[in-house]
TrEMBL record:
Source species, domain of life: Bacteria
Domain SseB protein C-terminal: 181-278
Lineage, uppermost ranks: Bacteria, Bacillati, Bacillota, Bacilli, Lactobacillales
Domain SseB protein N-terminal: 49-156
Name of the featured protein: SseB protein C-terminal domain-containing protein
Length: 284
């Protein structure tokens, strides 16, 4: 497994530390990984490339950072924290990249395999912000999902893809929605309600079955009308919802998490009745 090094960065925000080890599959992540996998298989297909670029522009990635004390210098005498962004050597081309991940679970899994004692935390950044950091620390670019997809997004390729006009992804024919059987759907909804009541950033919620092109069967999907900050959704909402229902799902079933801003979510909110709606009142 490649050695991870650390380079100082000046990015100020850190998301909460991940504690749960359960895999959370967001619709955004599923779309991005599908587009990435298709493009890796057929890199000369211009339509697949545009779809990948479209997802890349909207995707938020997780990058491992180490927190340390700010070195006091003659120019900077104030104590503070320093964030060191990890870099790694990609053996396929010998270049250094910033490792980035499409979910905190993928990042945790990769770092656990490396068996390191250094405490790392996930930072959430967009592709544009990550490429800026890559140029700043003088590495070749970012390496997406090392250990699985191993996709090197170089500074040169980023300069090229910025010229590609993103296309609107998907239409109603690319997925199907349906109401799932009441058993176990009713039990799942009851579990979700107990958690949703404590989430002031969620106004409505739907529990449905969705058939996506990258899945063979219908999977459970939780759609919420979310009014909080986008970068906090997976850690503060999606993960809690997924953990709350993991004991109620059928064997080997996944649960997808999305919002009404997604294509699937917009269709769900338009065509189905929510099982939960936050009531605003004296105690709301």
């Amino acid at each position: 497994m490649p050695e991870v090094e650390f380079i100082e960065s000046e990015v100020p925000k850190l998301p909460p530390k991940t504690e749960e080890r359960m895999q959370v599959i967001s619709l955004e992540k599923a779309r991005f990984e599908k587009a990435l996998s298709d493009f890796i298989v057929k890199p000369i297909d211009s339509e697949l490339e545009m779809r990948f670029v479209s997802e890349l522009y909207t995707m938020l990635f997780y990058v491992p950072v180490q927190v340390g004390e700010q070195t006091i210098t003659a120019r900077n005498r104030k104590p503070g924290l320093r964030l060191d962004v990890a870099t790694m050597t990609y053996l396929a081309d010998g270049n250094e990249y910033v490792p980035v991940f499409s979910s905190p679970d993928r990042m945790d899994s990769f770092l656990r395999e490396m068996d390191r004692n250094i405490e790392l935390r996930p930072m959430v950044l967009s592709a544009k912000e990550l490429m800026f950091q890559a140029r700043r620390v003088n590495v070749a670019g970012i390496l997406v999902n090392p250990g699985e997809h191993n996709f090197p997004l170089s500074n040169e390729y980023w300069s090229y893809v910025k010229q590609i006009r993103p296309i609107e992804l998907g239409d109603g024919r690319n997925f199907k929605l349906k109401i799932m059987p009441r058993d176990p759907a009713a039990r799942i909804e009851n579990k979700l309600k107990s958690v949703l009541k404590r989430m002031r950033t969620v106004k409505k919620a739907w529990l449905l079955g969705v058939k996506l092109p990258e899945y063979d069967e219908y999977e459970y999907v939780i759609i919420v009308e979310y009014i909080g900050e986008k970068q906090k959704f997976e850690e503060q909402v999606a993960r809690k919802l997924a953990v709350s229902v993991r004991g109620q799902l059928p064997y080997r079933s996944d649960v997808l998490i999305g919002t009404t801003e997604d294509l699937v979510g917009r269709s769900a909110s338009k065509n189905f009745t929510p099982f939960y709606e936050r009531r605003i009142g004296l105690f709301g």
